[in-house]
From TrEMBL, chains A, B:
This is UPF0284 protein Mpt1_c02300. It comes from Candidatus Methanoplasma termitum. It comes from the Archaea. CDD domains: DMB-PRT_CobT. It holds the Pfam family DBI_PRT. Belongs to the UPF0284 family.
C-alpha cells in the first residue's frame, strides 16, 4: 500500500513493497504469539553457546524462558537465564511486548530435555543430539506435519501469527542447515556474545556435515533431511507452523539468524508462502558487526523482508540492559517479533520508549530491585 | 444489565440477573474455545457408555472428536464417532459453531489412552482407570495446577473462555464425584442414550465409592481427592482452567451433566468465581426427561446460571440428526457451549437456523452424501 506510513519505532530491510503490503493488511489487527522451545545437546559443547551461565545451564534456558513468559518467574532453575556476564534473557522484552499488546501466546514444545513447568503445545518431538553426531534430530517429518496442523489452527480466529524460538545452540545448528542447503558457504550467523566464536562454530558444523556424509549444498532440495542430520528440534515445528499458517494469514518470523534456517527450509518446501511472511527482529541484530542477517536473507529470497524494532537500551539505568548495546544477546525468545507485533496491533501507537519502560518494570521485579 | 435483550436462539435457566450481567459484558466480544479430551476405562464397562459404536470404540471417541474439529476428518479410526444407532457425534455442531464464529480453539489432553493425531496442549495427565477401582485418576494435583496456569494464559488476550470435554463414560464418573461430594444423593446425570442405564451407573458408582472406602458426602471438602478416587482425567484439567481464567474473564462451561462435577469442584475450591461463570448447553440437555441438570445446578449454587441454545433438528432431512430430538446424544464436545459462544460473538446475529445449515454442510461432507 503506497500510503502506508511506518512509525519511527520500526524499520524495514529488503523488499519494502512486500513489507508494507503485509503491514498494511495486519495494521491494528489481532495476532497470536508462539514460542517454540527445544534443546540440542550442541549447546553443551564448551564455548558454543552463551545462552546460559555455564554449558550445562544452556539446557535449562528454553524452559526457564518459557516459565518467565507464562508464570513471570522461573521454576526449573533459580534466577533467570543470563549470559555469563549476568546479562538477562531477551524474554524480558518479549514479556513487556506481550503485556502491552495483551496478545494471546502459547509455548510450543519442539523437543526439550528440560521441560517447562507449564502446559505446552506438544509436537511429538525429542530433544536433539549433538550436531557433530550427524544424526541431530529424530521424528522430523512427524513434528513438521504437526506444525502444519498447528499453523492452520493458529490462523483460525487470528489475523496474523508470530512464531519464535528459545533453543540454545541454535545458531550453530542453523549454520549447519544453511550450509547443508547451500544457502551460505561461510559463517554469517550471530551469537549471543559480542565475541562470536565463529571458528569453533564452523569447525563443529563441518564435523557434523562430515559425520552425516554430506557436503555443502548437498541437501539443497531436502531441508527436512538436513535438519535430521545437523539441525535442532525447534526447526521442524516452526517450519510447519509457517507453512500451515501463511496460507491463511501473514506470519511474522520472530528471531535472528537462527530463524534464517527455518525461513530457508519453509520457502524451499512451499514457495507460495513468499509475500505473506516477513522476519521480525531487533535493531541490535541488524547492526551486529559479527553476523550478517541481511546477506543471509538476500540468499534465501529477495522477497522476504525484515521488519525490525528500533529498541535502544543505551539510556537504561541498568548495566545488564545497557549490555545489549555492547553486542550482547541481540535477539531470542521472539523479543523482536513480539515487539514488532505489539506495535502493529496498536496501529503504531506503542513506542520503543513504552516498551523500555515496561522492560524496566519487569526487570526490577525479577531482580528484586527497589 | 437491565436493558440486555436475549435473542430467541438462547434461553436462560437459573439466576437470570447474573446470566445477563455476564452476557452483556461479553456480547460481541472475542472468546477462545478449548475441548479437553480424556479417557477413562470406565467407558469400556459394557452398557455404561453409548459414546461409541462398541464399548472398545468409546476409547477412540475423544481422539476422533478432536481430529474432526481440527482436521475435519478422523485419523485414529475409520468413520466418525457414532452412537450404536449410527447417530453422529455432537462435534458436528461444535465444528459448525467454530466455523461460523471463526473462534480460535485448542485441544487439551487431560489424559488419553488413544491420543489425537494433532498438536494438543499437554497437561501431564494419564488416562483414567475403572471407576470401580476406587483409584480412578493419577496426578490430579499436577494436572489441576497446570489447568490453573492454562486458564490464566487463555484469559490473556481473550474476552472470554469456553471450556468443554470429550470423555466417554464421563457421566458415570461425574455421578461418582457428585455423590462423593454429597452434591446429589440420587442419580440425576444424563446419558447419550434415550434409555439412560441409571441402575447400572448407580451400581458402578457405588462399587467405586466402596473400593475407595468413602461414603456419600465424605469428600464434600476435598473434590480433588474425590476425583482421584472416582473421577476422570478430564476433570482436574477443566477445573483448573475455570479457576485460572474466571479470575480475569468470564468462563462458559460447555457441556451437560458431566460438567456439573467440574463446576461443583471448581466452586468448592474457589467460590470467588461465582458471578463470572455460567454453563453453556443445549435445549436437548435441558429437556431430557431422564436427567435433571437444573436440579443438580441448584444443588451446587443458585448463582451459576445455565444459558442454552435452542437448536432443533426436527426439520433436518437426516435421520441421524433428527435422532437428537428423540433423546439421543444431547450434548458433548462443547456443542452447546460453542453454539452459545458463536451467538455471543456475533452479538446475537448468528441464529439456530444458520448453525443448522452449517451442520448439514459438515454432515454431508463427512458422510459423503450428494
Amino acid at each position: 500500500m503506497s500510503n502506508f506510513k511506518l512509525p519511527p519505532s520500526l524499520s524495514i530491510h529488503g523488499n519494502e513493497k512486500i513489507a508494507k503490503d503485509i503491514l498494511s493488511r495486519i495494521w491494528g489487527k489481532k495476532g497470536v504469539f508462539t514460542c517454540t522451545v527445544a534443546n540440542t545437546l550442541t549447546s553443551t559443547i564448551p564455548g558454543i553457546s552463551d545462552a546460559g551461565d555455564t554449558p550445562e545451564l544452556t539446557l535449562f534456558t528454553p524452559a526457564a524462558d518459557a516459565e518467565l513468559l507464562v508464570l513471570g518467574k522461573t521454576v526449573c532453575m533459580k534466577g533467570i537465564p543470563i549470559n555469563p556476564g549476568g546479562i538477562p534473557t531477551p524474554a524480558t522484552l518479549t514479556q513487556a511486548a506481550l503485556e502491552i499488546s495483551n496478545m494471546p501466546f502459547f509455548i510450543v514444545n519442539g523437543g526439550c530435555k528440560v521441560k517447562p513447568n507449564l502446559p505446552c503445545i506438544e509436537m511429538g518431538g525429542e530433544y536433539g543430539n549433538y550436531v557433530t553426531s550427524g544424526k541431530a534430530v529424530s521424528n522430523v517429518k512427524k513434528v513438521f506435519e504437526n506444525g502444519v496442523i498447528l499453523g492452520k489452527m493458529l490462523a483460525h480466529g487470528h489475523d496474523f501469527v508470530v512464531i519464535s524460538e528459545s533453543c540454545a545452540g541454535g545458531t550453530t545448528t542453523a549454520l549447519a542447515v544453511l550450509m547443508a542447503m547451500g544457502i551460505i558457504k561461510e559463517n554469517l550467523v550471530s551469537s549471543s556474545s559480542p565475541n562470536n566464536p565463529r571458528e569453533l562454530k564452523t569447525k563443529t558444523v563441518m564435523e557434523g556435515l562430515k559425520a552425516a556424509g554430506i557436503g555443502i549444498g548437498d541437501l539443497a532440495n531436502d531441508p527436512l533431511k538436513a535438519i535430521g542430520c545437523v539441525g535442532d528440534p525447534m526447526m521442524p515445528a516452526n517450519i510447519g507452523i509457517i507453512i500451515g499458517a501463511a496460507k491463511h494469514v501473514p506470519v511474522i518470523v520472530g528471531g535472528g539468524t537462527q530463524m534464517a534456517a527455518v525461513i530457508a527450509a519453509a520457502v524451499k518446501i512451499d514457495p507460495s508462502i513468499v509475500g505473506n511472511i516477513f522476519q521480525g527482529t531487533t535493531r541490535w541484530l541488524m547492526g551486529d558487526p559479527n553476523s550478517n542477517m541481511a546477506k543471509i536473507m538476500d540468499s534465501i529470497s529477495p522477497d522476504i523482508p525484515i521488519v525490525y524494532v528500533n529498541m535502544d537500551y543505551s539510556s537504561s539505568p541498568y548495566e545488564g540492559l545497557q549490555a545489549y548495546e555492547w553486542g550482547y544477546i541481540k535477539e531470542g525468545v521472539g523479543c523482536g517479533g513480539s515487539s514488532v507485533a505489539a506495535i502493529i496491533q496498536s496501529s503504531g501507537k506503542v513506542t520503543c520508549d513504552e516498551l523500555l519502560e515496561k522492560v524496566h518494570e519487569i526487570y526490577k521485579k525479577i531482580m528484586n530491585f527497589d
